[in-house]
Amino acid sequence: MKFNFFLIVLLLFLNSCSDKKKEISKITEPDQNMELIATYKEAYQALEKNDNYYAAKKFLEAELLYPQSIWAAKSALMASYSYYLQNYYSESLSNLERFIKTYPTDKNIQYAHYLIAMCYYESIEDEKRDSEPLIEAKNKFNFIIQEYPNTDFALDSKFKLELIKDILASKEMYLGRHYMKKQKWIPAINRFQKIISEYDQTIFVEEAIHRLVEINYTLGLLEESKKYAKLLGYNYQSSEWYKKSYSIFNQDYSIKKIKKEKKGVIKRFKKIFD
């Protein structure tokens, strides 16, 4: 993934250097210090050798040497990318936010936004961990699609969003199953309904509908249970989850319904809303 991503950055860099001779001539004029060229070159060579952290430091040094030069914005962006390659996402994000504020009219500003999204995206671990990177990546990819719709960044953002939706749906499924085991029915129902309403194109929607059949049957809400069973059958009749839902209404179904005994009913009712 990062290798392909490097190609994108490299193409951007090469494109920005299409007038290489013209830019070099500007830098090598008497009023410019050759130290800038040497520093930038050293940083770029380090990047080619996968010495990404050192490259980031040298790119930042090049930016600071001549903050008003045409190379300053390029150096700042390349520093962010170098941090990204090193998996230093916090450093990359911090530098990218600074880049957007410092160089708001730079022609590569859309790439900066995309790289921010990728930093959050690469920080995603699994559905049991912190969901902040998921939400931040989702928001930034949506921003790119809206602001830069006819770009390759928007196209890739759409693809990444589908993957993020799968992860978010898996997180809801994980929590829903957890609440089911604890017999916390209302929180479980909320999680499964969220999958149906927000992530209906993911692989988890069939199980979510089945779980709603299961929970409502367990609570004695047979009509509600049948409603979800019909929904599952209408849309996913060949699904294994539909077969499981169908078996719920047979006598052999293994999950026992809650007995409506008076003893402890208040405690059990309270547990539903925990």
List descriptors:
single chain; 274 residues; mainly alpha; Serine Threonine Protein Phosphatase 5, Tetratricopeptide repeat; 14 helices; 73% helix; disordered C terminus
Structural notes for this entry:
Helices cover 73% and strands 0% of the residues. It is mostly helical. The chain has two domains: 2-123, Alpha Horseshoe (Serine Threonine Protein Phosphatase 5, Tetratricopeptide repeat), CATH 1.25.40.10; 171-272, Serine Threonine Protein Phosphatase 5, Tetratricopeptide repeat (Alpha Horseshoe), CATH 1.25.40. α6 (89-102) packs antiparallel against α7 (109-122). The longest helix is centred in the middle third of the chain and has 30 residues, at 152-181. The two termini are 42 Å apart. Residues 17-25, 27-31 and 253-274 have low confidence and may be disordered.
Query: Could you say which overall geometry the principal axes of the C-alpha atoms support?
Result: elongated
The Rg value, from CA coordinates, equals 27 Å
Distance from first to last alpha carbon: 42 Å
Question: What is the name of the CATH superfamily of the largest domain?
Answer: Tetratricopeptide repeat domain
Determine the number of helices (DSSP H or I, runs of at least 4 residues). Answer: 14
Element-by-element helix/strand order: HHHHHHHHHHHHHH
Largest sheet report: none
What is the CATH class name of the largest domain?
Mainly Alpha
How many distinct domains?
A: 2
Please name the CATH architecture of the largest domain. Answer: Alpha Horseshoe
Which class best fits the helix and strand makeup?
mainly alpha
